Amino acid sequence: MIKIIFIAVCSFLYLSNVYCQEMPPIQLDRPDQTESPFTVPKKYLQAEIGFTYEKLNKNFSSILLPTSLIKYGVSEKFELRLIAEIEQQKLFDYRQSGLNPLTLGFKTKILPEKNIRPMISFIGHVSFPFVATKKYRASYYAPSFRFTFQNTLSPKLSIGYNLGAEWDGFSTSPLYIYTLTSGFSVSSKIAGFLEVYGFIAKNYSADTRMDAGVTYLLNNHMAFDFSAGKGISSTSPEYFISTGFSFRFK
């Protein structure tokens, strides 16, 4: 997988540099947990590839290598989405790894930003339980959805927030999601964020977390990112770190 990504990046680097001035900078759904309301430009393919290490407690940890979000712009307001993740888990000295259930979905714009009204989009996904390594297969199809919002406060500052729910494929009870992030520009190429987000499930304590990160724009079609976060509540993971590379091409 790493070799394929490297070849793809090298193959499209020249084209990206040629056309990078013709389009606005790439908009990402990573590295924060708040999904962006922006969609991929029409007829563009965008890949957001990352690595995440998460320490849940002293005995259990997980690694996503890679976590991949592939998006295709069907129109200026609609994109198709594919999520694929290879996960390795460690519990004491026992390790297992494999492909998580493959996820397909879409994002569509609902309303543009106007005065105090935020830009609004909707994201819908469904995970397929049997398109996965045997150890990671779920029992049911697992839907998820989010409403994404963004307000521009100034040319260098914005806030984004999501509300939604998801199912894990094993239980019929949903997990409710909320996020709030502040994005700020340090320069024309560097941007940062601070974020609070969490999960609420019936009969379970709330899981609240916080994170921060930075994005570096290589050109209008390529970006690197780094982020780290920690749990706030007793049910949250201890901490996580993540890094990634994203690119798009027509």
Q: Topology, please?
A:
Blueprint: H1 2-19, E1 45-55, E2 60-75, E3 78-91, E4 94-99, E5 102-111, E6 119-128, E7 142-154, E8 157-166, E9 175-185, E10 190-201, E11 207-219, E12 222-231, E13 239-249
Antiparallel strand pairs: 1-2, 1-13, 2-3, 3-4, 3-5, 5-6, 6-7, 7-8, 8-9, 9-10, 10-11, 11-12, 12-13
Structure description:
The protein has 250 residues and is mainly β. 7% of the residues lie in helices and 59% in strands. The chain contains 1 helix and 13 strands. The protein has one helix at residues 2-19; strands at 45-55, 60-75, 78-91, 94-99, 102-111, 119-128, 142-154, 157-166, 175-185, 190-201, 207-219, 222-231, 239-249. Strands 1-2-3-5-6-7-8-9-10-11-12-13 form a 12-stranded antiparallel beta barrel. A hairpin with a 2-residue loop joins β7 (142-154) and β8 (157-166). The longest helix has 18 residues, at 2-19. The chain is globular. The chain starts with a helix and ends with a strand. 28% of the residues are buried. Residues 2-9 and 11-20 have low confidence and may be disordered.
